[in-house]
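Tutorial sheet, problem 5. The two components below are modelled jointly, 1496 residues in total.
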Amino acid sequence: MGTKESCRMELRTAIRHLSDRCLYSASKWAAEQLMGIEIDPSKYTPSHTRFQRGSSSIRRRYRTNESTSTPAAGISYICTPVPDEDNEEMDTDFYLLAKSYFDCREYRRAAHVLRDQTGKKAFFLRCYALYLAGEKRKEEEIIELEGPLGKSEALNQELVSLERELSVLRKNGTIDSFGLYLYGLVLKEKGNDNLACTVLVESVNSYPWNWNAWSELQSLCTTADTLNSLNLSNHWMKDFFLASAYHELRMHNESLAKYEYLQGTFSSSNYIHAQIAKAQYNLREFEQVEVIFEELLRNDPYRVEDMDMYSNVLYAKECYSALSYLAHRVFMTDKYRPESCCIIGNYYSLKGQHEKSVMYFRRALKLNKKYLSAWTLMGHEYVEMKNTPAAIDAYRRAVDINPCDYRAWYGLGQAYEMMGMPFYALHYFRKSVFLQPNDSRLWIAMAQCYETEQLNMIEEAIKCYRRAANCNDREAIALHQLAKLHKELGRFEEAAFYYREDLERMEDEEREGPNTVEALLFLGQYCKDQKRFEEASMYCNRLLDYTGPEKEQAKSLLRGIRLEQSGLPATDVEQFPQ
Amino acid sequence: MAGTLKQASAFTITPHKVSVCVLLQVYAPPAQISLPFPFSSVSQHNRLALYLLTLTKSCDGIFEPTLDELITQLREVGGLLNHWLTDHLTNKLASLSSPDDLFNFFSDLRGILAGPDTTVMDDDQISLDPTSNLGVYVRRCLLAFNVMSFEGVCHLLTNIGAYCKEALTSSAPYELPRSDDFSNAPETLEYENMDLENLVFEKVNAELESRKRSYERVSFHNHAPRALFGLVEDINLTAEPKLKNVDKNMEHSPFSQSDKPMIVDPSGENFLRTNWQVQGYLLEQADLIEKRRSSFSLNSFESILKQLQKQAPELHRVHFLQYLNSLYHDDYPLALEYLHRYFDYSAGTEGCDIVTSTTGSNSFGRYENALLCLGMMHFHFGHPKEALEVLTEAVRVSQQYGDDTCLAYTMSAICNLLSEIGISDTTGIIGSSYSHVASIGTSLSIQEQLFVLLRRSLKRAESLKLKRLVASSHLAMAKFDLTHVQRPLLSFGPKASMKLRTFPVNVCKDLRSCSRLISEFDTESELMITDGAMSTVWLENLKKPMGSTVFIQDNGSGNIRDSFRFCAQPCSVPASVQQLVGSSYLVRATAWETYGSAPLARISALVFATCFAESSSSEDVALAYAKLIRHIAMFKGYKEAFNALKIAEEKFLSVSKSRILLLKLQLLHERALHKGNLKRAQQLCDELGVLASSVTGVDMDLEAEASLRSARTLLAANQYSEAAAVAHTLFCMCYKFNMQVENATVLLLLAEIHKKSGNAVLGIPYVLASISFCQLFNLDLLRASASLTLAELWLSLGSTHAKRAVILIHGALPIILGHGGLELRGRAFIAEAKCYLSDSSFSVIDNPEVVLDPLSQASEEFEVLEYHELAAEAFYLLAIVYNKLGLSEEREEAAVSFKKHIIALETPVDERFLFDML
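Model answer (structure tokens):
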């Protein structure tokens, strides 16, 4: 990685290039990263550093591995020369007019102004304006053509002519990296994913600061193999790309490592903090996520992006007031953002007002039909409302948008199980477990399905519980169930093993409850039957601390032990040979 | 979006609909006399109406035809007028260039509808009755246009532009409006681009005039289409077709046949047909896939469905078709995926977009249907355990939600499963779920469970008035009654106290009540499906290659022929019903086979093959063919049978392999046995045994047959003890699995083994047991053949018993002669002759014909059968008799034949073609 200063210089130029070409979101992204580079505090007045103070405190708290911030050996970053602007005097006036039209969202007018301009910049802006005009028309048409059987396929009418024009230029070799980006975009829209991938790689290799191009490329990398086959030159932007791609491929730890490494330079980048939060969320480290988001909101109070995830965390932790505060804030900022609606939906869901919650999820989906988590969350709401068909429909839509959404598969399974169709539900649980094999909750759900009285397939249930126990089962359901099932099947040795494990665990976590009593009672009985009297009496003595019928049972057990120990000394000797 | 119901019907104006409206305007211009301007005859006029009617009804695809296709069809229909019509159409469409033109067009369209109060139609006035099919169509168009937003109108306008442009690029000639008169354009296509027009014109014109006059005489019935087709507009589709799987029993019946090619226009603007046309298409395709899957290529049909899905993402039935498609192409993961998707979206309530609110439906959805389908799927893929598991869950869920219909179907599905695949231990599985059965006790054998289930499902279906299900339950009952005795055998042999017998009367009753179904469906008609199908057929006829030239030259008669075909399809019985009734005939044939009436069995099979072959699955058809071929083999010998088999094999090319293959193995085995080619026979036997254990589990019947045949082969090889051992194990197996009917045959076989090994005394008890079995089970023909064996046994005990034997034979002869095959008859004749010959009181010289007649008959029959051993015997006896009579010439002849057969028997020729056939 280059020095912080060189990164800063590159980004500054890039922002100018990008906003010159009206690639606003890319330039926004670049500007955010620019501000994310930590400034040497000695050089600047406190007013400059204020923006970054909070973020660095997060880093101090959660920077686990300092060494990651130094570049790994052997990677040589290429230095991509920053291209010079083509300052052709002739087209600047036209260009200025076109750009102002573009800024006013009059895309066709902008394109028209630039119809005879030959400069690369003008060419790009013309094509980009046409593309956006087509997109806008497409959006309108989708609504206009909405039929009773669903939406008809609306197409961006400009794609064909744009593709023709851009492919000619690419063959000539007169296309610049922005043109390549647009070409890749068009190809992707047309469904030509392979070529789109190649073109986008060309684009990012020649001009790495265009985050739009990277994110298009990332959306094409649906498998790890495609990602690895990309021929990307080394640049620090590639690390951003890889981190985001790993995240999408559910390689959360790899993604986290990359982001932590990037933090070495961009230590106060909000983007990176949010991404780390995302990864932590998927690893179910809710505490950390909450801290990160709190800091983020302090620095950037009007941020709406990614806030839906924060609301999920608050929901999971049942923080009513925090969630309502968040909902209020995003509502005031921009109520017509899918994220805002989702947050409000979450809030109502937490309050148990499921109808209202569904309404807001619906609104979120109106704003973005492919908003995955809204579908899933809406499914949960319908489950709460006992409207199973609607829930199934919602989950299924989520799954059809992204077949890797294990939550929706899980929801489907749950819905069917609720209707008393456990065998049918198994299909869905299997799917979800396949996608997320390390999630104990899924295994437990599947095991419970097998365990239902209708199916009563205990062996399979045991297998599932065993998997659950192996992957860090927080609620500690699996061990207890394993013990219980083995006991029911008369396999006392296994049962004792699992009860002991369960007991140890509970001791570690300092939890007590009916499970403890059950475990102690069984172990006492079991050890007594095995003639391991000392152990047995140890368990029984522990039981005496509890009230209830078990106490009496423990007493009688102890009595029995004493009787056997005194009455049958011969077996005692056999049992414990010295 | 989830939870919201879509509005019932999708009717959006598309360019194609505008075209139809233009043509409708041509058909019925406002305020015109009986025959409007361009038409020269009433029939021409009607033909256009019929064509328009079919356009609005046919369901042969998902997309509306392009202008090009429309013009091509118009050319066929329009006959003399085709140029005028196409020009008019294209001009009219081209003239629609601004939204206002469209507004004017539709307000003009209103004029062709008759007023609401004109109840009496003026004969001379052509106006559309607003309640007729076409009238409703126009009204729907008008309504759809009126509710359209301005954006919609703009879209329509651009679409019309694209629609015309496409036609322009692909078929330029039709676009150019002819400047000279176009009402009399020349008829044949060849003239179109030629400058000869004017030269030929005179001649053609004269010819046309004369023709026209002749057509006019042809009166036509349906001048007012509404009279014929005042059809119901709101078609209610029940969810029945979806459940039809149950009746159809998941046939594995691929069928090689070239279906109409599915041409999908990959590019350009396509518009879906009206909603129920698409639904009709899907229904038809579902039917077709189930009937003959091989005619569907997985990918091409899938791509059509994909397209449909893209166009109408909320039409969930597509997923079901995708499921069927992958199911019948044996793609398990895909089928599973699509099945789950379909039911997730439709909640099991979607029959079509018009959901009939039956009493059972509730807000919970009807996911039990999903279980039912999943169960059938597992059954299809040969996972009986999973299938049972799922079906029991279906039983539970439908009980829970009170869905009696589904429960009934599920139970009959379970019955099917149990009867098709005899799972060795189903106890517990059924017991755990189905409480009624459980209370009876889980110690019941599978047949008893099946019987109880059948009874219950029949009762349930009757109380729910599910006609099809009642019929199919009756059918299942009949099948069950046919081969299963009502009580298990507790000890060897029948006891008087136990009702151990079959009840042919019950079978007959069941079969009759099954066939009654067809009369019930006479009155009830599913208009949409049949209507749509008819329209499709009519349009298909247009497309036939002979069309273009023949049609125009033979215009008048073509008109009539086609329209008659169109009107004269009275078939209002749904295909599923026909299929059910058809299979009742098949069961009838099987029943007669079992009870021993060959002619009646043959007639039933013939009825099936001629009347129901169209609507039945190819599996059933193959079975019928197999029965008929068996009949030929028994009565006409192997040569003819193999000829027939060849035809059948071509017909069922590679597809329903098992059925025809089985038949072939059986025939070849019998033939090898008769010819004395024992090695070959043994080999064929083994192959048969392999067939018995298929993917779906062990077929016990086939297993039994295989070992029966191997015992026969051993017997033919004179390995008596081995043969007896095989027969004994077979007997034990049949006893274990309660296959008493088969045991009658096994006992007879044991008797034969003893007979051949010379232990006649030992054979007699077996044959007697067999006879009493036959009596109880009403196996008349088998009984006759057992009595024949008994007679043979008596005879071999010595000449003193000849009298007794001859009495037995005479008692059995009526049945043998009436129903028996060649072999049985020949054996009876020989036995009869032997009886006479060994009877000391009988003299050959006094009445030689008493012996000679049966013997020569027998020899003829065995020659046809190529049964060398018995043929030799017949000739031997003949020679002896001739010798006694002193007819030396005949004697020599018989002796030569005897020698020929003996040699053939001793040196079996491995005929090449036998191998070629396999």
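Marking note: The radius of gyration of chain B is 35 Å. Full credit if you identified this.
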